[in-house]
Amino acid sequence: MRGAVVRWGRGAGAPARDRPAVLGAALLAVIVLAAVLAPWLAPYPADEPDPVNALLPPSAAHWFGTDSAGRDVLTRVLYGGRTSLVIAVAVLGVAATVGVLLGVVAGYAGGWVRDVIMRVTDVFLAFPALLLSLALAVVLQPGVTTVIVALAVTWWPWYARLAASVAASVATRPYVDAARCLGVPAPLIVLRHVLPNSLTPVLVQLSQDAGGVILTAAALSYLGLGAQEPTAEWGLMVQQSQTLFTTNWWVVTFPGLAIMLTAFASNLVGEGLRDALDPRRVVVR
Amino acid sequence: MIEVRDLRVSYGGRTAARVPELDVRAGECVAIVGESGSGKSTTLLSLLGLAEGAHVSGEVRVCGVDVLRAPERRLRELRGARVALVMQAPQAALSPTTRLGVLMRRALRLHGVDAPDRAAREAMAAVMLDPELLRRYPHEISGGQAQRFAIALAIALGAGVVLADEPTSALDVTVQAEVMGVLRRLREERDLALLLVSHDLALVSTIADRVLVMKDGEVVETGPAAEVLARPSHPYTRELLEALP
Amino acid sequence: MTTLLRAEGVTLGYGRTPVVHDVTLDITEGGVGLIGESGSGKTTLARAFLGLLTPMSGTIWYGDQNLKKADMRRFRRDVQPVFQGEALDPRMRVGASIAEALPRAARDRVPGLLQQVGLDPELAGRRPHQLSGGQRQRVVIARALAAGPRLLVLDEPTSALDMTVQAKILDLLARLGTGRLLITHDLAVVGRLCRTSYVLFAGRVVESGPTAELLDAPAHPYTRALRDAVPRLGGEPPRVAARPEPSAVGEPGGCPFRSRCPLAVAECGRTPALREIEGRRVACHRAEEVLRGR
Q: Which of A3, A4, A10 has the CB atom closest to B52's CB atom?
């Protein structure tokens, strides 16, 4: 048993600990499916104002009620999910790709290469994310694309930092030294050995961040700088009807709940992944 | 101090270790020798009810406690105060933000030891550690010092049994000699019962009275150390001896 | 004896702190051992011999070339490491790991290499965690051999393995015709693989010479302490080296072993130079007494 890590207090207790993650994954799966299948699931067209039926409370015909334009809130929430998920995927896709590539190079190369990349990262990190997004959204036209650009710009440095620190530790592993001793060129070492072995924490971060991106995107929309009418987007929906909260609670509550649940689920999955991929949990040998 | 009969440890129906008989008396050292997967560490852990997720059957008595049937409260007391468990990486078991002295005093007070400061100093002296080390944090001491501190903690609590799982295999040879020297002396001076798990037959031969050789969960040979090592009867024991450089 | 690599007055470190001081060492045929405990600088020195670390001062000679200016393509083929621990990319199939050492046209040599180290070629499709420790170490050796090296730099190649497995790997290494630089804390292993050995303490060579003589009659108190600390089957319990009188330890500086040396005297405040004595080199003022068994 030399080299074996004894898993104190794991064994029988482990499945119970993973249950939140499973719940989060299931929840996230439902949310994604609902968004993808919105055109088939939604009981009404996405954008068909019907002033006669404005602000109806939840009923058999309209489970989540209708908004001030008479549109079905359930339909809007389903379509809003598409917008939010597109934003999350695009932002994280761009941020993680750019951040991880720069970070891995910085972490492996070290020295002045690392210094330059990390200083650039620090400059971006010095601006509060929301503020930078606000500034960008003002300069560019408000809209979904702007939100994506703004958030990607504020999000990538975190990935660069994470990837740089992971890659720096991977770079000291014996198998990387072995590759160097074989004369494998540095770019190939990064692509073949350093990058694949640095991805695990990035994956965890990604799933945890998804909720954060959706929340921030919603905040931008809420401030009027993100998605614009008639696009369905959760944050926008909350913003447009916040004055109605005391009188027509359903208009605000359901998109708000959608935001909350998504963020919650993504956090659960992230934490679950972090635990599951934690090397301390892996029994060596 | 340790009495084992028909111990069987299994994980999901697969037997990980089977020990028909194992006794360690006060002042005696018994060694379990084997390689990875032999079940030697599993056996040791099950003596304290620490084999997580395992099904354990048979009779296990440690310091008079019926380990397999005693309530968790009794087991905690057994682990905390009467048996010292020394593992390969002792630093991992010490809280990184607590000074060693605080840690030891806390443990001593918890178990109602009189004059904890004096007991701490005496225990440190017994393992040949400078009492000044009590002011340090776990990461500020070396691996060999951490091993000896783990032993000192147990001695201060009045433990009569030391279970050691590869206690020196992560240490330099000169440090290993010091730690083993401490164990050997304590055993003589304080009549400690010592159960040592190791892969190193040479190391075992210098301290153990009796050995159990384990392979794939079974005890393949057992007897007085001098005899087993001089005239091994099982081919596996012979193989182990020949592997010695 | 041909010298494959030679360190001349090499000082090594990370940042500005040297951890290896002024080491001169010849890697000759017949195997060279580098013995030291944790913190002795032995792995740092190995990295320098692999061209992974540039000396702060001094020179690594590769044949008659300074390694800094040498043909690195040839050097990379000539000198290969066998590391311990995570020496194989955990995400790669081991066949691919070996193939990385081969030119594209020679990838079909992988099965042959696996057989050469006593493994079933079928194992090429496995990932490292699906192999036993001994199998993994054989794969690491196969990868090193793939480059066709003249020298293997072995860094604790067997210390994480079970005894019976260790014995087999040592046999394999002894059978290979390549030169060896073995870095280890294990005196017994050195005896089997290396004709010459260097003992390192705190980044300095304290004794060097033929391995057999070194272990038989050490001339440095540290070599002796190391040898005596190894438990021997059925032997007396290892002696714990006595600590010196505090008065002899004195101020910092001087002989690095002084604070642990049972023979330390005031004279040890002066750093002892390496000197020739009875076929070996030793850095101790009292080497003659140690040799005579004091």
A: A10
